[in-house]
Amino acid sequence: MFEFDNLHEIWSTVKKNKLRTFLTGFAIAWGIFMLIILLASGNGLRNGIAYNFRYMADNTVYCWSRYTTKPYRGFQPDRQIEFTEKDLLAIKREHPEVDLISGRNFRNDTLTYNREYLIGGVQAVHSDYASILYTPILSGRFINELDIMERRKVIVLPPRTAEILFRDSVKPLGQFVKLGSLMFQIVGIYEEQNNNDSPPAFIPFTTGQSLYDGGHRIHELVFTLKGINTEAESEAFEARFRERMARRHQFDPTDMNPVGMYNSGNEFRMWQGMNNGIALFVWIIGIGTLMAGIVGVSNIMLISVRERTKEFGIRKAIGAKPSSILRLIIVESILVTAVFGYFGMVSGIGLTELINYVMEMSAAASGGGGGTEDTTVFHNPTVDMGTALAATGVLIVAGVLAGYFPARKAVKISAVEAMRME
After folding, report:
1. How many of the other CB atoms lie within 10 Å of CB of 169?
2. Could you give the 3-state DSSP secondary structure of residue 177?
3. What's the CA gap between 232 and 360, in Å, rounded?
4. pTM for the whole structure
5. d(CA 228, CA 378)
6. The dihedral of CA 334, 337, 340, 341: what is its sign?
7. Which residues pair with residue 176 across a beta bridge?
C-alpha cells in the first residue's frame, strides 16, 4: 500500500533534481499547450466558415431572368425572359431535388406610422423563405401559407425599422402601418441578417405580386436542393434546369445568359474541402507536437532511471522490494506529468478563451464584428475540453510508461551490480 512517507520521499527527489524535473514537466506542458493552440486555431477557421454560412442552407440556388443572346426559332436575340407562377410550379414538379422554394420580388416603398416614415426595401416572399435564408423571428411569426393563399396585407419588419416607426412605447406587433397607400398589419419582427444597412420588410408573395408586378412576374427564384452532394451532380442539375427553362421560355438551351444562377453549394463544398484540409493539417501538426512531447518525456525519464540505478541497488540492499521501487517511480511519473500536463492544458485553454473573449468584445463594440457584410475567417477559436483532457491523458500515460519500462529493467539488476554502476 502506498503511504504518505512515499510522497515525502518523491518530493525530496524532485527537489534534488530540479532541472531534470523541470525539463520533464516543460516537455509535457509545452506539448499540450501547443496542441491546444493548434486545435483551437483550426476550430476557429472552421467555425468562421460555418459562421459565414449561418444564414444560408448548404445548397441554396438563386435564379433570376435576363436577356437572350442567341436567335432561336424565329425569335431575335436581346429578348427579355420573365419568370412567372408557372415556373414556380414547374420547378417543383420537374425537379425532385428541389426541396424548399420561394419567389422573391423586390421594391422600394414608403412605410408610414402616424408622423413617422421611412423609405425602405420591401420583399414579397413565400413561407419557405424563412427556412431557406435562416430568418429567426424575434416576436410574432413569419409569412405563412394562409397569407399567400388569401393575399393578406400583413408585413414582417426588421427591428431597426420598427424602432424608427414606433419611437414611443407602442408595441409594433399587431399595429397597422401604411405601405405606399395601403395599410398592412405587422405580424412579426425578425432578426436582421448580416447587419444589412437597409434590412427589408417582408410581405406575402401573392400580395406583392398583385400590387407591384401585374399579378404574374417573379423577379427571382430561391430554392434549396436535396441529394446534391458533389460538384458533378450540381452541374448536371444546372444543365437539366436550364434545358427545361429553355423549353418553357423558347430560347436556345446553349444560351447561358437568359437564366442567371448562383448555387451556394459549390462555394460551400469548396470551403468544406478547405475545412477538411485545415483539420487534417492541424491534426498532423498537433500529433507531431504531441509525439515530440512524448519523446522528450521518454528520454528524460530514461536518463532519470539510469541516474538512479545505484539508488535502486541501495534500496534493494536494505530490504526494499522491486515492486515498491517500481511503484515509487510510477507515482513520481504520474505526479510530475499530471501537474505539468494540467498546467499546460489550463494555459492553452486560458489563452484561447482570452482570444475568443477579445474577439467577442471587439465584435460587440463594432456592432457585429464584420461591418455591413458581417463575415469573418476566424470565429470562436476554442478547443473541446474532452480533446484537451484526452491529450493530457495521453502524455501522462506516456510518462508513466517511459518511467516504468527502464525502471523495471533496472530493478531486475542485483543490488551489488546496481551499486557498482556509475
Report:
1. 5
2. strand
3. 39
4. 0.66
5. 28
6. negative
7. 185
**C-alpha dist (Å) from residue 15 to 10, 21, 298, 404, 406:** 9, 8, 20, 21, 22
Decide if 72 contacts 258 (C-beta within 8 A).
no
Query: Which runs of E-coded beta strand occur in 226-345?
Result: 259-263
Total number of residues shown for the chain: 422
129 is written with which cell numbers? 423563405
Rounded distance between C-alpha atoms, residue 163 and residue 140, angstroms: 16
Q: With beta carbons less than 8 A apart as the criterion, state whether 190 and 143 touch.
A: no
Residue 62 φ/ψ, nearest 5 degrees: -110, 130
**Cα 153 from Cα 63, distance rounded (Å):** 26
368: left (phi over 0), alpha (psi -120 to 50) or beta: left
- What residue type is 37 in one-letter code? I
Name the one residue in this structure whose C-alpha cell is 414606433: 166
Per-residue pLDDT of the chain (422 residues; tens, 9 = 90+): 445 556 666 666 667 667 777 777 787 788 788 888 888 877 787 777 667 666 666 688 999 999 999 998 888 999 999 998 899 999 989 999 999 999 999 899 999 998 888 998 999 999 999 888 888 899 999 999 999 999 999 999 999 899 889 877 678 999 999 998 899 999 999 987 655 567 899 999 999 988 886 678 899 999 999 888 888 888 899 999 999 999 999 999 899 999 999 888 877 777 777 777 877 887 787 777 777 767 776 776 677 677 777 777 777 777 777 777 777 777 777 777 788 888 888 888 888 888 878 877 876 666 544 433 455 656 777 777 777 788 777 777 877 777 777 777 766 776 666 556 55
398 touches 27 (CB < 8 A): no
| 3-class DSSP string for 315-348 | HHHCCCCHHHHHHHHHHHHHHHHHHHHHHHHHHH
179's enclosing H/E stretch is strand 176-179
Residue 323: count of CB within 10 angstroms of its CB: 9
What's the CA gap between 87 and 84, in Å, rounded?
A: 5
The helix (H) or strand (E) run that includes residue 175 is none
Report the alpha-carbon distance of residue 417 to residue 402 in Å, rounded.
23
Reported in sequence order, the residue ranges of 14-97 that DSSP labels E, i.e. its strands, are 60-65
Residue type, 214: G
